[in-house]
Amino acid sequence: MNDFQDWARGVARDMEHTLSDLLPPPDVEPQRLHAAMRYATLSGGKRVRPMLAFAAGLVTEAHPARVKAVSAAVEFIHAYSLIHDDLPCMDDDTLRRGRPTCHIEFDEATALLAGDALQALAFEIVSTHNLADNPATQLHMLHHFTKACGSHGMAGGQAIDLANVGKVITLPELEFMHILKTGALIRASVQLGALCGRALRADEMVHLDRYAKCVGLAFQVVDDILDCESNTEKLGKTAGKDQDANKPTYVSLMGLVPAKRFADELLADAYDAVASFGDSAIRLRQLAEFIVRREN
């Protein structure tokens, strides 16, 4: 896995430069808003979603510049979602990636506007950069991206999450919630990265989406496990918060050992989904293992 770790560090390093270049400079008005946008986006993180886009792009021989652009758009959406998730009206958290959350470092109004502006910037990138040879393909990318972010995707999943605090729900209901809240943007990352390159057959896109669905669910299952087993210093965010808030999780519904077994099953399914792509999917397979075996 040393080769994978070098590749992952390279993607994260390149994305940090790309994100910095695409964000408004901090000395341009409104300076405080731009500072908050940069604070929330350039605060590190694993950059899993860009890695997924680049790994999918390897399958379709996509040009790196195109994948960088869609990866930046995805990361801006991810950063906006974290800002809003941490607000007092949502999950009310004070720590993110080992630093004060955006509304603590700045203020609630600035944090809210920073999230709004990052969302707008993401769609500006997808609509104005040259991401595909065929304009119809780029329009399809934009459509898929907007759906992943809206009420049928990430925002809808967050709404369901908030509505179920303190309630008993079934495993299918929990899975549906996380397919939207966590999985939609992960699936978009894989699809957008792949669409930056050569066209795939319909059945090949189905295989990629199946992989992304498995990885997206596995990401959330492992998050739930780490929230139960790890500590705040290691996670860079408040550990045990879901349990304290009486939120339904895979651990609370299944138990710790079955949740770990489920993560392993999802990993095996992810491997199987991309088996037909051969060596071109090696980074996708390595990423799936990284997501399931990670410790923060």
Describe the structure.
By secondary structure, the chain is mainly alpha-helical. It has a single domain (2-293), classed as Orthogonal Bundle (Farnesyl Diphosphate Synthase), CATH 1.10.600. The chain has helices at 2-22, 31-41, 48-59, 64-86, 102-105, 108-128, 135-149, 154-163, 171-195, 202-229, 232-235, 241-244, 250-254, 256-273, 282-293; strands spanning 95-96, 99-100. It has a two-stranded antiparallel sheet. A hairpin with a 2-residue loop joins strand 1 (95-96) and strand 2 (99-100). Helix 3 runs antiparallel to helix 15 (282-293) and helix 9 (171-195) crosses helix 10. The longest helix has 28 residues, at 202-229.
H/E element order:
HHHHEEHHHHHHHHHHH
Number of domains: 1
Structural class: mainly alpha
Count of alpha/pi helices: 15
Largest sheet: 2 strands, antiparallel
Q: In CATH terms, what is the fold-level topology?
A: Farnesyl Diphosphate Synthase
Mean pLDDT: 93
Kindly estimate the percentage of residues that lie in beta strands according to DSSP: under 5%
Report the CATH architecture.
Answer: Orthogonal Bundle
Gyration radius (Cα, Å) is: 18 Å
Top CATH class = Mainly Alpha
Distance between the termini: 18 Å
Provide a quick synopsis of the model.
The protein is an all-alpha fold.
Show the helix and strand layout.
Layout: H1 2-22, H2 31-41, H3 48-59, H4 64-86, E1 95-96, E2 99-100, H5 102-105, H6 108-128, H7 135-149, H8 154-163, H9 171-195, H10 202-229, H11 232-235, H12 241-244, H13 250-254, H14 256-273, H15 282-293
Antiparallel strand pairs: 1-2
Helix pairs in contact: 1-4, 2-6, 3-4, 3-9, 3-15, 4-6, 4-9, 7-9, 8-9, 9-10, 10-14, 10-15, 14-15
